[in-house]
Design brief:
Elements lengths: L1 H8 L33 H6 L11 H14 L7 H40 L1
Helix pairs in contact: 3-4
Length: about 120
C-alpha cells in the first residue's frame, strides 16, 4: 500500500501505466540498435497445441514442452521436474525483462520532467 501511495498518488506524472504501451521509442538510447523479442511459436502453432490464452507469451514453447512431458509421464509427473524448472526460469526471465522495461520507462519520464522544469526555470 505504501509503495502505491508514494508512487501513483504523490508522483503520478512520472509513473508509467503498468498495462499501457511504452511512450518512448524502444530504440531510444541504443545507438547500435536492440534485439527485438519474438515469440518462439506462431499463433497457429499455439492454437494447434491448444495452449491456453493466458499462457500464450514468450514462454509458450516451454509450456508446451512441460505439458507434453506431463502427458507422457502421467501419473508420475515428478519426472517432469526439469521441464517445470525450465518453464519457471523462462517465466522469471520474462518478468525481469518486463520490470526492466517498466523501470526504463519510469526513468525516461523522470528525465523528461527534469528537462521540462529546467526549460521552464
Amino acid at each position: 500500500m505504501g509503495n502505491y501511495i508514494a508512487t501513483h498518488i504523490t508522483h503520478p506524472d512520472t509513473m508509467p501505466k503498468s498495462d499501457g504501451k511504452p511512450t518512448f521509442d524502444p530504440m531510444y538510447g541504443f545507438p547500435n540498435g536492440r534485439k527485438i523479442r519474438e515469440i518462439p511459436l506462431s499463433e497457429e502453432d499455439m492454437m494447434a497445441f491448444k495452449i491456453p490464452h493466458d499462457k500464450r507469451d514468450y514462454c509458450a514453447h516451454k509450456y508446451m514442452e512441460l505439458h507434453e512431458c506431463k502427458r507422457r509421464h502421467y501419473p508420475f509427473m515428478l519426472k517432469c521436474a526439469h521441464e517445470r524448472h525450465q518453464y519457471n526460469e523462462c517465466y522469471v526471465e520474462d518478468y525481469v525483462i518486463r520490470m526492466k522495461e517498466y523501470e526504463r520507462e519510469r526513468r525516461l519520464l523522470e528525465r523528461e520532467k527534469r528537462i521540462r522544469q529546467a526549460v521552464a526555470a
